[in-house]
Amino acid sequence: MKKIYFDYAATSIKRKKILEDILENADKFDGNPDSSHSFGREAKKILEESRGKIAKSINANPSQIIFTSGASESNNTVLSGFADKKIITTNIEHDSIENTYNPEKTILLKIGEDTNILDQIKEKLTDEVKLVSIMMVNNETGLIFPIKEIGEFLKDRDVYFHVDCVQAYGHLDIDVNAMNIDFLSLSGHKIGGINGFGVLFARENLPSFIKGGEQEKYRRAGTSFVIGAYSMAKSFPYMIEEREMIRELKNYLIESLGKTGLAFEINGNPEKYVDHIINIYFKDYRADFLLTYLDMHGIGVSAGSACRAGAVIPSKVVERIYGSERAKNSLRISLGFENSREDIDKLIEVLGALR
Ligand SMILES: Cc1ncc(COP(=O)(O)O)c(C=O)c1O
Q1: pTM for this structure?
Q2: By alpha-carbon position, which residue is closest to atom 7 of ligand 1?
Q3: Helical ranges in 86-177 per DSSP H
Q4: Is the distance from the beta carbon of residue 277 to the nearest atom of ligand 1 less than 6 Å?
Q5: Cα pseudo-dihedral 95, 98, 102, 104, rounded to 10
Q6: Got the DSSP string for 291-330?
């Protein structure tokens, strides 16, 4: 049975071309970039070249790029840096934001299907608020937030702007200057890099909660994960090349869903959502049943976020936007570079057999 992966928003399939390239050049990754011998210098060269490429991908300066263990750490670092300040964020952020902010100091924006978040920010922003933290693309529904407009509004105000760009990176253009972003979080494994590597773009230094050596110019201690940086930097150009293909697949999936004969609705308006995430409400089936059924046919999808220890827990985001009954019957299908029209045909055939 051919296995089909539709869970790229949880983590991407790894890019075999990049893994092979790493193996072929394995000697170059041996040293510790902070060692002064030739092994160290070689690793340092790769690390800094990767930093340069990642910086360029978001129009940042390499000195503003801090390597971390993942976007959870990047998000934690920013939110912890503002723990004693008043902040604005939304009720559909990733758990690494939601579990870090201080609820007593947080103004939580409630997101609906078509909420104009900028109006809410305008209404709630006071002089006391020192950070606005909004994700660019929601990981459970694919909802896109108007980051450029928010950045424009915050530009000349005495408030910092943090954007969790994990699910936008590679799928949508990001420019930290044009968008007036002060802090930004990225994750390597969502685009095909190796898990356990992330980026924090920071215009200003924040206290690192990992203390130790001088790595990352004292902004984040710990021996650098050179292969993580390399694999992320190498993956980015592929993401740009694959955009059109993913858009076509999304349209094909939406067109084909009717052929299942199942009663369904797309959660949200697909026109306003990123191409690789489609969240679908199946009126007559529970998501935990569908997930197990599809898994038995070798098809991997998810219900909510993958950060929930393997349990099938309904999407908190669908629940907050549409209520808990709809969330219990909603599935997330997220597309990536190894998917094809044949994979979608198979999904439709397997779902159709439920009738
Ligand atoms: C929107 C969003 N932010 C943050 C994260 C955390 O990223 P990482 O796995 O690199 O810690 C994820 C991962 O699911 C995500 O989707």
Answers
A1: 0.96
A2: 71
A3: 95-98, 117-124, 147-154
A4: no
A5: -150
A6: HHHHHHTTEE-BSS-S-STT-----HHHHHHH-HHHHHTE
Among 353, 257, 334, which residue's Cα sits nearest to residue 10? 334
What ligand 1 atom has the least distance to the C-alpha of 187? 10
d(CA 287, CA 182): 38
β-pair partners for 161: 132
113 forms bridges with which residues in the sheet? none
Residue 270 has pLDDT above 80, yes or no: no
- Which H or E run contains 38? helix 38-57
pLDDT higher than 70, residue 195: yes
Q: Tell me the residue ranges of DSSP E strands in 188-288.
A: 198-202, 264-266, 277-282
- How is 64-111 classified by DSSP, letter by letter? GEEEES-HHHHHHHHHHHTTTSEEEEETT--HHHHTTS-GGGEEEEPP
331 membership: H or E segment, kind and range? strand 330-334
pLDDT at 340: 98
What pLDDT score does 264 carry? 97
**Ligand 1 midpoint to CA 72 (Å):** 6
From 25, 307, 308, 324, the catalytic residue: 307
**Is the distance from the beta carbon of residue 139 to the nearest atom of ligand 1 less than 6 Å?**
yes
The residue type found at 306 is A
In the chain, pLDDT over 70 holds for what percent of residues?
97
Question: Is position 307 annotated as part of the catalytic site?
Answer: yes
Contacts of 16 (CB under 8 A, 6+ apart): none
Q: Mean of the per-residue pLDDT values for the chain? A: 95
- Structure-token pair, residue 241: 């090349």
Q: Are 182 and 204 within 8 A, CB to CB?
A: yes
Q: Per-residue pLDDT tens for 166-177? A: 999 999 999 999
| Residue 124: per-residue pLDDT | 96
Query: Which residue has tokens 């439709």?
Result: 348
3-state secondary structure of 10: coil
Task: Give the separation between CA 267 and CA 154, rounded to whole angstroms.
Answer: 30
